[in-house]
Fold this protein.
Amino acid sequence: MPVSGMLPAMRYERGALGAAVAACLVTLAGPAAAQAARTCGPPGPTWPTASPAQAGLDQGDLDLALHAYQDRRSFAVRIYRHGCLVAQDTVLGSTVTQHESWEITSSVLALVALRQRAQGLLDLDDRVGALLSEADAAHGAITVRDLLQRTSGIRPTPDNAFRENVLLQALATPVTRLAGAAFGDAPAARDLLVAVLERAAGEDLQRYAARELFGPVGIARFSWLRDRRGQTRGSFGLRLTADDLARLAELARLGGRWGDRQLLPADDVAAMLSPQASRCHGFMTWVNAAPGCAGDDGRLLPGLPADLWSWRGRFDQRVVVLPALGLVVVRYGATGGDARSGSDPRAWERGVLERLIAAVRDTPVMRTPGADRLPPSTDTDWRDDAAAATAGPPSPPGPGPRRTRVPRVEPVRTTVGRSRLVSVRISCPAIGGVPCSGTVALDGASARPRAWSVPRGEHREVLLRLRRRPAGPLDVTFRVTALDDADGVRVAVPARLTR
């Protein structure tokens, strides 16, 4: 059987693992592989498989890692390398059971947002108020980027405080910090993101996700919780099989490309998997790239590779990806650690990943410092706030100022002839916001600013006349301002003018 199975019940000591990685930078390499590890293409209805040897992994160490996961109350475990399934649990029904992913739901929302980016439906700097006219001034000033990197400034509240109308709840939850100023995990912000994505798509979020994200990667079945009024939940509620959740992780590992289709912008995927406002977080993703995680000098998982990233849900639902090693791990289950023991509740996770990394035989492993340190637990407190849970419907503030969408700006005419004319094409999104209008100016060359106005869903070319023709290549910046009833939006696009 090409996929590694389970070992008889056994345990291992984690102390030796910590000692093995105590050095500041350690390179591990097993014996040279007889042949290059197998690489599998995107999965069809089922994942392609490879034996541990074919995948460049040691059978014994891989079995130890798999058993260590299973020994921690796991419901489903999958390990993939270079797109091939190499190990899985033997839990009855784990191949077809859809499990609650908890906060991993938010990571999938980020993928939906990037899919809309690829289709030109959304800009990361679009403000909530441009798509939700009912938003007050404070909520309306929050950008999509703020929501994705968890810097909305919305006060954290329990996930299940009020299920009648989660959008109403989100708009009624106070904004206590300036948007973009500081990291803070607010479940209400994720529900707000769902509403923004629905308005940008012009249709139900689940219908859009099924067609534009899940379908293209081969996910045919899923379940996603709604509130009593039908809005999809953003902070939890998505149920997928382990193999289908792995498809989404594989899409991110491959930079948003699936076969011959670039479903997500590669630059945006790179941003999603890199530190943003917090050293530990990209877009709804935990990253291991930088020290200082959660106010600690360590990392998310000290001693493990810096390129590691993870989607994490309560009760230790996990997706862990090690890009340089081509490894993807999916784990569903009950809480794997035990905070009551007095040890860090996530130390078990690092120990299991050490076992898995030890199985790699064909690639040197570059580790990070701090193998003997773990930052505080990153799991969200799941306990209900009884008072909030029994409170009546909230009363959000009234609508704030009307806001504009971010226009798309593309340089068109950059070769300067005798007419001295240059131009940009300005496109106005079809959905939401006030009608697009404003000014366009040119930095780096002398030209009089021009006013512009574009109906929703249309585009126009705006001409600017240079005062003099450049003698040679000239780097400039087109600066477009879109006006609204608040502070408007500004877009800067660089270009090179030639004769």
Notes: The longest helix spans residues 104-118.
